Every structure is written in structure tokens, then in C-alpha cells.
Amino acid sequence: MLSNNVYIIGAGETKYGELWDKSLRNLAVEAGLKAIENAGIYSKDIDAIYGANGLAGTINEQENIGALIADFSGLSNEGIPSIRVEASTASGGAALREAYLSIKSGEYNVVVVGGVEKMTDIHGSDIIEKMSSILDREWEAFYGATPAAMAAIIARKYMHDFNVEKEALAMVPVNDHLNASKNLNAQYHNKLTLKQAMDAIPVAEPLNLMDCSPVSDGAAAVVLASEEYMKRNKKEGIKIIGSAIAQDYLSVGSRDSIYTLKSTKLAAEKAFRRANVKRDDISFVELHDSFSIYALLELEDLGFVEKGKAKELVYDEIKTGGRIPVNPSGGLKAKGDPYGAVGVGQVVEAYLQLNEKAGERQIKNAKYALLHNMAGTGTSSVIHILEGY
Ligand code: COA
Q1: Is 325 within 8 Å of 304 (Cβ atoms)?
Q2: Which residues line ligand 1 (CB under 6 A)?
């Protein structure tokens, strides 16, 4: 039977950061078990597992992540199907969407979605080389481009064409670090002044260290359930009211405009249409701000402000209490950027916020959350709109 609605009934995550004492499998299992416990379900209730991961094959030399997760969660004996979903840094959002569709179709009633990445086992140029494999190897990475270099090229052109000062970019990490200072699971807890954000060491100019997300380990998991399961068990949950994914060219040079995130624009249009809510209804957004420039482009391409005008939002309006609060979790910059976990971690934050369990960083009267998870330079974007009570 088709399921009208899909609900989130449990969530859990590990701390994000340089977690030397935890392996890929430890992280996945820790987050998964927290989510299952939080949802109050048992292994017999689980119909399927979707595990998001970006780079375990190259960084950890471990493929077959679905089987790894099921095995080390003690679920292999139950025969529960468990597969990996890979869409670069948007793997988490993509896994959530696949799980959502599997419930919508009527195939499953309860699905666990996990995301995990263990990135800090290799360092320096080695990890940058691996991270660069999400770009077009032949047309970008082969010539020395890294994710930071591509973001810097986009930033230069954008700042030139729309007369945007570096300060506007720096406001993004200032906001992220302030929010992350209230999130125990975040990688960084230090607040950042505008001067510190402006004066950090250059990485790929105009971007400096504070414009870049860090290299991170971490995992997150959520439990989804069908309408039928909710009725049968008299449960309440956060509703997924809009889900969409869209694609753009892999190589930035093939795109019509290097500072328009077409995949974000297309996915946002679909997600808002499906959710039947307006931009003004959104209580907060979790943005995929792997580099500060992307936060500005994303606010524009999600439709919160016209192209070139995000500089009008970043000083005050993105703060908690502003017109459109951004990244209450601390975002990729300060909560951290464990590739496959990011999109699922955004759901964990929304689950806490919409259940009014986000403690010090609670957004008042949070009702609708928009989650934006993006692959690399914008090759794919996955958007979910969630509704609280
Ligand atoms: N923000 C704040 N601090 C950071 C940081 C960041 N992005 N990256 C590293 N640091 C800190 C570390 O915590 C460490 O602090 P400590 O000395 O107090 O322990 C210090 O800087 C040195 O860390 P290290 O890991 O040696 O830094 P690095 O120079 O090797 O790496 C970058 C810095 C910017 C190169 C790295 O963070 C990076 O590549 N980021 C981009 C990630 C990326 O491309 N993601 C892809 C998204 S599509």
C-alpha cells in the first residue's frame, strides 16, 4: 500500500571531529544504535538500511559499506537489506531520499538511514587528493584543482560581478562558529570575531582557513516510518513534506554560469512545490556551506534573496532570531564536514529543533526546516523540507 506520509521517529549522531580512537565501523554503529534507541524500535521492526558514504573506498580502503553497517550493528543475522548510497558530499541527503521513496512506494514501513565518514586517518596533500576525486578528475583535478580552489574561482567571479566584499563571506563562519559553540557534537566550539575570520591564513585566495570546512570524522542516523506504522503504533513524528534532488554538470566549466547552483535552484523549486509552503514559512535552514561562498550562492538559489544580494542577509538575517536563521548546528564549517554523514546530520539537527530539544541553540517556534545537501561544487543538490508539530 502506498504511504501518504513519511515520518522521522528517531535520530542520533556521534561527535564530529578528529576522532582518533574511533574507526569507520565504530562511528556508524554508534550513530545507528543511538537513532534506533531514540526511536524506541527493535531489530525486528527494521525493513531496510540505507548507508551514506562518500570516500571509504579510497580513504579507508573499505567498500561494501552496507554490509559493514548491518554486520557490526548485529543485524546481519536478521537478513535486513543494507546498501550504500553514494552521491559525493550529498550522499546523506540522497540516502534519506531513497529511504523516503522506498516507504512512499509501500515497500517498507521502517527504514534506518545512516551516514558515516572517517577522513582523518590520512593527512595533508593525501587527504586533499582523495577529496578532490569528487571533482571532474580529467578536466579539473588533473590540472591541480581542489574543492577549495574551485570554490575560490567561483568566489572571485561572484565578488567581482556583484561587488561583494570579503567581509560578507567572513560573516558565514562567524555565524557558524557562534552556533557550534552551543553544540556539544560540533568539531569546533570557539567563537570567531569578524577580524579573526578575515585575518586567517590564506588557503585559496580569496578564501582563507575560516572560509573552509575542516576535514572531519563522524556519523549520523535517523529512523523513518510509514503512515501505517505510525497509526498502528500510535506514534508521532516529524513529517517529510518535500523531497527533491537535481543535477548539474560535473565540471564547473561546462555550466552556463559558474555562480548559479542550478541543481540547488531546480531541487528547491520542486521541494517547495511538493511541500506547499513558502520561503517565508521556513523557520531555519541547514545549508551545505563547505566553503563560505556557497552559503551566499545557496541562499540566492534556494530563492530567499535575488542573485547577488545574499550580502544583505549575512550580517544579521542569518543569525538565530533573524529573518532566515542559517545552520543552528554550526554548519559544515564549524559542526564539521564528514562527507557521507553531513546530509543525515542535518536531519538530526532538524529533528532536535522541531522537537524543541536543541537546548541553548533552540530556534523559537520552529515549525518548518529546510535541509540543503550538495555534492562538491554543486553537481547534485538534495533538498528536504520537514514539518514539526
Ligand atoms: N577551520 C578551522 N580550523 C581548522 C580548519 C578549518 N577548516 N582546518 C584545520 N584547522 C585547524 C586544526 O584544527 C588544527 O588546529 P590545532 O593546531 O589547534 O590542532 C590546525 O588548523 C592545523 O590543522 P591541519 O589539519 O594540519 O590543517 P591543514 O592545513 O592540513 O588543513 C585545510 C586545512 C583548509 C587545508 C583543510 O581543512 C581542508 O582541506 N579543508 C577543505 C575541506 C574540503 O575540501 N572539503 C570538500 C568539500 S566539497
Answers
A1: no
A2: 89, 124, 128, 131, 147-148, 203, 209, 212-215, 290, 337, 376
Q: What is the CATH number of the domain that holds 67?
A: 3.40.47.10
Distance (angstroms) between ligand 1 centre and the Cα of 124 equals 9
Q: Is the dihedral of CA 103, 107, 109, 114 positive or negative?
A: negative
Amino acid at 360: E
Answer yes or no: do 322 and 196 share one domain: yes
pLDDT tens per residue, range 214-246: 999 999 999 999 999 999 999 999 999 999 999
Q: From 122, 131, 212, 339, give the residue whose CB has the most ligand 1 atoms within 8 Å, as the site to mutate.
A: 212
β-bridge pairing 217-226 and 6-13: antiparallel
Residue 3 has pLDDT above 80, yes or no: no
* Residue with CA nearest ligand 1 atom 5: 214
Share of the chain above pLDDT 70, in %: 99
* pLDDT value, residue 335: 98
Within its chain, how far is the Cα of 115 from the centroid? 10
The pLDDT score that the predictor gives to residue 1 is 66
Say how many Å lie between the CA of residue 26 and the centre of ligand 1: 23
pTM: 0.98
What's at 322, amino acid-wise?
A: G
Give the structural domain span for 57. Answer: 6-123+215-237
**Residue whose CA lies nearest to ligand 1 atom number 46:** 147
